[in-house]
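Pinned message: reference record for Cationic amino acid transporter
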Amino acid sequence: MTHLLIDAKSSNNCKVDILLDSKHQSLNLFNKVEAELTLRTAEEAEKNSVEKVCKGPQPLDQPKIQLEHDASKRVLSCTKTFIKRLIARKPMEILQAEIDTRNELRRDLNWIQLLAIGLGCTIGAGIFVLSGQAAAKYSGPSVIISFIITGVIALLSSLSYSELGAMMPSSGSVYTYTYAAMGEYLAWFIGWNSALLHLFSVLTAIVTWSKYVVLFIDNVSNYNIKNMFVQAPVAWNEDEERFIITGQAINLLAIALTIAITILLIIRIYQMAIVNLVLVVFKIIIIIIFIFACCKYVNRNNYYSFFPPNKGSFSEYGVTGMLKGCTYVFFAYTGFESVSTVAQEAKLPERSLPIAIIGSTIISLLLYIVLCTVMVELVPYKLLDSDNPLSEAIKTTLYGLWLSIVMNLGAIASLTTVALTDMLSQTRIFYAMAHDGLLPSFFAEIHRITTTPWISIIISGIFCAVFSGVCPVDILGETSSISALITYIFVHIALIIMRYTHGDIQRIFQVPFGSWLIPTIGSSLCILLMRGITKPTVFRFLVWTALGQIIYFSYGFWHSKQRKSIKSASISSVTELLPTIASITEQYTQNELESDLASENSENAV
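Predicted structure (tokens):
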């Protein structure tokens, strides 16, 4: 028994020795670290003193410097966070999940109806009004070349739209593509300016429509509508670059058409698509009738001086005038992108969107070239400076009044489809932006019976009714052109980025000739066309953009769902770390207690 006690005591003494040795080793290690830190502190102090001697005596306010340093760090941190928020992209996983699960809008449209929407939005005021004005003011007979160049540019853009639309079939169109490729801020910028494109296209079509209605009534009857109720109270004087008072009251016909379109859009999109399809078929038949009826009356002498001599300025005839004409008539091709705004209402959008987008662009291009060729051969180009250039051209034929009436009907049908489809597109873009939180949620409110964004449609209808009653048509077309060019540039850039960042995603349709060739050529040509934009047009565009910045930073930035998801993810990350931190703290406390207990036991044993 005594031996056992001695052995136990010896064992305890050994444990105490081990603990003491461990403690001594820890103290030695601590002393070494403390000595090393002291040495480094002394070296840094000596270094600082040498620097002070070299620089000379300087007053030092350490607390103030520390506060300034902390403030600078906070400003830098806030700036980084702010920039990260602006360039935050919507992940493709979230975007695809939204497209798959968001079934508020009914998928009623087939590829024929989509093609009709593209043609309905494209063929309108650009060919019935701007073609003759471009020939008379800028290009002369070379307006044909202007239409070919702009048609090629539009075709390149339609290829990029087709790939992105098939990959991301969302109602946001270019807004959604930019959000996924370049981040929220640029998505807002291009979405807001895409809305400008469609709104001004609606206004241009409606105002021009009212003029053709007046002409039609004048041709078929002796009733003369008072100009006071069919013209805007202001007009744009291009020579003086300022607005002038016309002495008229308001354009009641434009307001009436806007109300009718608003009501039709609130009804189910299927009924709207049927109406649009009928009107599109009718206007294409009218254009074909004009081409075949007038082609035998052409006078090739009107081709003389295909490029009229330049008058001394960039925009008056010659090659530069032809380029100016490109900018002016580019508005005629804006519209094919409307197909992408109804992607969430299309059956099999991955296949039907490319067919409709590219098909509508090619058909429009062919019709424009043939129609312009016949028009400039019928009469001298200077006689085409009219709001109704095709009627001026018809005067040289034997068909006279009846063909003019038919063409007026075609123009009325054409401009109706443009206004209808453009307002449709604008409301769908606002719907997508509101769904992401960048606009108030009522823009995304869907009617439970008609399944249309009815509040957004009503607001757009009120806006168009007011402005179509007071705005002249000539300033609206060019403003739409600059917005379209910038929109197409963004689409090309978004395609290049998505090819490199999401190259693994399956694409049913791909732009040919590699990842960057077509988009680079297309965006470069769009930039070249922007040279012909006038300063007043740029000013109006900048005013609209500034208004968009105010809305974004006062509302969209703070209500963005993407911002809220990022914030929630950050909170979740911190929450996930809390158990780990608690576990580490608990383990550390337990180790401290064991160390203290071992120390007490060793002291008692001694």
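Pinned by admin. Summary line: The first helix runs from residue 2 to 55.
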